[in-house]
Amino acid sequence: DGYSHLSAYERKRLKNITENAKFFAALKLHEVSARLNQIATKRQSHVTKRPKPKKVEDETTRRRSMRLLRVEPLDIPLLETMPSRPGAEEYPQVPVGPLPMVPEDQAEDSKWTEALLGTWMRISELKADDADRGTPDIKRYQESLSSMVLREENIRKVVKARVCSMAIHPSESTILVAAGDKWGHVGLWNVSCRSEEGAHIFIPHSFQVNCMHFSPCNPAHLLSLSNDTLRCGDVTRAVFDEICRSEEHFSSFDFLEENASTAIVGHWDGDVAVVDRRTPGMSSELSADIGFRRTRTVHVHPVNKQYFLAAGSVDVCVFDVRYLKAKGNKPLSSLTGHTKSVASAYFSPVTGSRVVTVCADDKLSIFNSKNIQVLLVFKKQSNKSKTHENSQPKPGWAIWDPKQEHCFLVGSMAQPRQIQVFQDTGKLLHSFCNMDYLGSVCSINVVHPSQNILVGGNSSGRLHVF
Asked: Which of 65, 112, 227, 446 has the most crowded Cβ, counting Cβ within 10 A?
């Protein structure tokens, strides 16, 4: 009715729409929807909230190797008071290639730095008189040792961390000492300056400085060896040149010639390498496997420069550099009898007829290098209740006095702290000690080649000059 004008299909469609509307209205869906919303809201108020996840920065930092970060372990008690431990980001990697000779504190004390480098250059031009050089008799030598004293003004913290190596300039007019520490720093100290501005720190290396020498033919050159590189600090050009670089960790080096153009370099993994400064590039001339598991020190014979001494795990052997090859090297002779790791082995300074070795069992051994005969083995004085120094022997623990063929020096853990001088017969000739100013172990020592000057370095970067 009222829709007669529509077609039969349209009327059918309209009827379906009307019936469907009535059907959905009878279901009362809007009331159901409102009820469901009410129930959902009510239940949500009783839901326990889940804790928020921690932010990334709140999580515990992933553990990283303290050795790779160059950080000392904090849970190991040390005898010495260690300096603050800088993070790896504070000392970034030193770039490859030449570096300007600019100290860490250049911005503050540039004039004092120029004075220090100028002194080094000036004293390097003076030639020492070798006419009177020789081996004094023991009595006169003992008297000279007794005359050496340690004063307060001759103590200085020259580097920031443990002293790993030292060198003393051969000048007879000025005392100039170089020290390398475990962070790759090289400190230069003009002891004769007697002022606070007499020492400066340079950073030519990324890792600890294991060995240092002033060039025997040109003391304006200071060569320093780190784990990954051998550099030459040339004060005449104010630059640290890079001589050799390797992924094999270097341990020590010594010059094969008086002109310092070639050197034998030891590797921590046991190999040795021959380096020639005159050739281009930064690789060695030869890398030789000498059969060692570890090579700590290498030392060239003072007279017959073709022979060198290598000290390793329990090995101390003499090799001829002329016959070195990549593999299959045999020693000319072996100095046997060591039961633990050997820290160092050195020829006597004038004739090379003696060899002194230091072993981790606290024993010092003297060998006759001509017929390879053990002359003497005796126990070092040490404090057995504190063994961290002895459990990690360092290169340079026993060094010959370059002025005396038959006497050597070694740092002692005896109380009071001291540096002892022994004759090659085992007789104790003198003990350098000072209860007021020397209270630490000087494991690294160096002696002036012509003057009565001894420098001892400790684990906090402090130098003591007798």
From this structure: 446
